[in-house]
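Why does residue order matter? Because the sequence determines the fold. Keep that principle in mind as you read this record.
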Amino acid sequence: MLRYSDFDERFDDSTLFFDLFRTEDPLVWEASCPPALNLAEDYSWEVIAEPSGQRIDPERIPRIMHDLLRFRVPEGSEALRLRIAGVAEQSIVPQPSVREDFAGRKVVFTLSKDNDLAWIRDWAQYYVRVHGADTAVIYDNDSTRTTRAQIAEALAGVEGLEAFAVIDWPFRYGPNDHRRPGTLYLAESDYCQRGMFEHARRRLFPEAAMVINADVDELIYSESGARLCDVLAEAPAGYVEALGLWVEAVSDGRTDAVRHVAFAQRDTSERFPTMCEPKWALVPAKLPADAQWTAHRVIGAAPMAESADFAFGHFRAINTDWDLHVSNNTTTRRTDSPEEDAPLSEIPALRRAMDAAFPSPDAGWIETPVQEDADDAFQQTAHCRMEPRDPAAAEARGGPHYWVHRSHLASLDPAQAEVAAQFSERALRGAKGAQLYFVLSVVAMRYDGVGRPEQAAPLIRRYRAGVGAAYQAACDALLAWCLRDSKPEAAMAHMAAAIAVHPDRAGYHLFIAERLKVSDPAGARRAFEAAIAASKAPGCLASEVAVLGAQCAHIGRCHAAEYLGLEVHKDVVMWSQYAAFLRQTGSMEEVLDATRMSLLGRPTNSERQLALASLYREMGQDEHAAHHEACALSLARVQYAHGTHHNAQPYERQMHRARATVALIKALHANGLQEEMDALLAKDFHAVAGLEAPRRRLASFLMQHDKLEQADAFLGRVLKRAPADPVLLRFRMLALLRLKRFDAAAAAAIALGKVAPVPPHIVNRLVNGLHPDRDCSRIRALYALLFASTVGDASPELLEKAVAYEADRGDAVQAVDWAQQMEAAHPAAAESHLARARARSAAGARGLARLDFQRALEVNPGLLAARKGLDALKKAAP
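Structure:
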């Protein structure tokens, strides 16, 4: 595995349990644990209930980078005795559940290490006054500057805070290398914080009225002034995600102290991304039971549309420089000021919220001892290097993890797609069991990335015997996915075999539905209905936590975000595809219901909002349509304004920006903001290479809405960067054709013909729009396209017209060649004989031409052109 040299020092190799605690069921105890990963089968331990002496076999529930152990104990149990063969024996007393203590509480909580006491007090005060929190919980991660008693004293001074707790959480944080070049989530083992979230969710807060997850340097605010406690109480979904903006370490002078209230400015330049990954607030009882809380999102739950109203300020100055600055993997400090010429602007909503929370900026200051070793810790992190330093040695001993990680890193650069596929194939060596299956899924994705998914199929067949019985059906599904285009019948057979074993997997049925929707609409409907029946409640990700947890255990976290969607299936995708299918086969009411369901799964997606708005417009429900159009605009503005994640690679940042641009353009159009839309079209992502997908989506949107002038201007710019993109060339050709700019449209068609077929009817329309004499060379080039790739699709009449034009105004030898191609494609057509006759006549072979004219008349006696040609030859005869 790719690691930095300090990995072992930071890795927690001594913690078996974070905590063992009772649940609401007195006979069920749970333990929050680091993930066992590859050691799960090697644990040689005994668990004995005391005082009964009964042996307990715990149920291990894999979560994402975390394990939950569940012990079913006999009545009267007081402790568990753990015997680890040859290592240790220890009795562990379960801690009581404290869910009743936090029932109905509105909590803000975080993991904290060595933060200033004043910062902690200000953080709690802000959430009390701005969002209605009444309880604060700090998990103290072995602070050295302060004691837990001092933290508690600081919280005790917060007006309006009814309860607080400082929990000792002394575990090593673990490697967290997503900001370091070369690892990018691959070597993450930050089990400490992941364990904290599961511990809080299961032992402390299951009955809380509100839980806010925000670090001490993060203040969530609302553009409208809404309070989280009110929004969450009123909404049935009960989950808000807030994107973050970096607040620069530039004081506005309100106080001389380093406190939140002194900072409210963001850097508005485009030199580095500005968005921080989300933080969240929720009502635990309103979320799915198997959802997993993590630092930046809740896996298995969909955020509410109201999330667009919330954001958070991430304060660079409120930091002890424990970690790297996050402007794309640099070695600068978090607290460094921006460049002198950086454009700064105040965040008004954040400033309003802080003014309400801190009416006296200097009040409540608490001194905290200086951290003596802060600079040493920073320098150690900043200048650490990746191991091993000998690449050849690494490759020689690299196992499946190593090559999966190399493949992942290569896949981040589109130019390295072939290399990524080769690396993934090398990961097969040494893999076995479940790990082998997950490696095969990586291989399938990588070959799909180079346009050859079928190339993975022989590898899946060769290795599937080694994946074990539990993953045989999943291998069939994987084969179906790889063969979906090259061998569709075989793909359907493989998926049918997978469904026979696992009829409860919605993704399998959806695969069938998508492939039947044209050829067998009734069968497609049955498959969609089976997928819906197999799926969980709308907005949840079926089995996501369990499946991704298994992936992380076997090949690392890098694969989690890229899965094929067969095993982990988002209901929003299913409902969106079902709605599109119903557009062709169902009633408007069915389409509306399916679209509503898709929106439940992704209410923060502006394009889903617009899809629902469009339906309401068609149904004459303009008030509903206007509501969703306005909501879409709000969501699209938030996504566009917040930029991209700090840890994204350059290509990922550009792609995110492009997608956000397309979404905002669509929302602006729907809301009638034409000038702003045109300005955005004129300035944005056309200048960046490698963004084919969002460019194509935007071009399609402009064409669909008859924005032909804008489409032409946009495509003219982007084609300078991607001159051979067949989809973009086709869009420009069609835009120019609809604008009746035939000369420019013909040029686009000729360029398209070099990389993809041009439909014959388009060639005919273009030729008819050009001047037969002035545009001779262009017409000949257009006709040549027919014989380059589409001669079998073109009508005999059009082909004969092309041959005749070439014979009259161009190259007679070329005309003869075209005539021969035409005859091979349409041997029974009279026009084939006529075309060859004209070509031979132009080439001087009049005797042969006469025979061809006669054959044409034999096939079609009424073919006037053949009769005229024959008469002309007779008159020209000496």
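DSSP finds 35 helices and 23 strands in the chain.
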